[in-house]
């Protein structure tokens, strides 16, 4: 960029035109949440819906169905979310090795924002989300999204609400890659299973 602008006198550079669509179509809040759920499912995330009072039971049920005996917990996660889960809680610690994190069965986090049009969950390293690596190493990630407060329609709307100085992790479904023959392999550089709980 410096090279491209090297011969432009200060103050004479052309401002970037930002007249692109901020949202594709008009939707109600309910339609935006439905779009998020559809796009998450398209990316092979498993979507669950509940209310705040039923959330602890839902989280406990998901962990039990997975057969999890250990769950990684960010320091600022709402204790009530795991109130019904009877298993060993592993704290998010700076000294944890990748091998130790890989041995954990599941991780439960909140999120910073969820983008409906792309089916993307964004984590920003806040205390209820923990360090970036805890969402990348364990094989099973349960992510709680508060609906509708944390749901936006588009990426431009998400960027307005996110702090670019924070460590942003953008998650669209479970970790996956394909080889040249398009054989899909999941769990290569992140969780093999992503479960998203939409909580009203």
Which structural traits does this protein have?
four-stranded mixed beta sheet, alpha/beta, 24% strand, six-stranded parallel beta sheet, Rossmann fold, 200 residues, 5 helices
Verbal overview:
With 200 residues, this protein is of the alpha/beta class. It has a single domain, classed as Rossmann fold (3-Layer(aba) Sandwich), CATH 3.40.50. Helix content is 21%, strand content 24%. It has 5 helices and 12 strands. The protein has a 6-stranded parallel β-sheet, sandwiched between helices. A hairpin with a 5-residue loop joins strand 10 and strand 11 (184-186). The N and C termini lie far apart (45 Å).
Topology summary:
Blueprint: H1 2-5, H2 29-42, E1 46-50, H3 55-66, E2 70-73, E3 88-91, H4 98-102, E4 106-109, E5 113-115, E6 120-123, E7 140-146, E8 151-152, H5 155-161, E9 169-171, E10 176-178, E11 184-186, E12 193-199
Parallel strand pairs: 1-12, 2-3, 2-4, 4-7, 5-8, 7-12
Antiparallel strand pairs: 5-6, 6-9, 10-11
């Amino acid at each position: 960029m410096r090279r491209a602008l090297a011969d432009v006198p200060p103050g004479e550079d052309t401002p970037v035109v930002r007249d692109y669509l901020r949202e594709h179509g008009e939707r109600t809040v309910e339609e935006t949440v439905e779009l998020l759920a559809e796009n998450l499912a398209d990316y092979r995330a498993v979507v669950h819906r509940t209310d705040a009072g039923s959330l602890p039971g839902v989280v406990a049920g998901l962990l039990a169905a997975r057969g999890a005996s250990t769950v990684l917990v960010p320091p600022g996660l709402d204790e009530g979310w795991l109130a019904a889960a009877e298993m060993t809680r592993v704290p998010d610690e700076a000294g944890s090795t990748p091998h130790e994190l890989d041995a954990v069965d599941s991780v439960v986090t909140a999120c910073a924002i969820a983008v409906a049009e792309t089916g993307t969950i964004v984590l920003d390293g806040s205390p209820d989300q923990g360090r970036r690596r805890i969402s990348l190493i364990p094989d099973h990630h349960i992510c709680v999204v508060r609906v509708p407060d944390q749901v936006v329609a588009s990426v431009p709307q998400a960027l307005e609400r996110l702090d670019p100085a924070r460590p942003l992790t953008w998650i669209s479904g479970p970790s996956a890659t394909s080889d040249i023959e398009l054989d899909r392999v999941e769990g290569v550089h992140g969780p093999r299973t992503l479960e998203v709980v939409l909580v009203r």
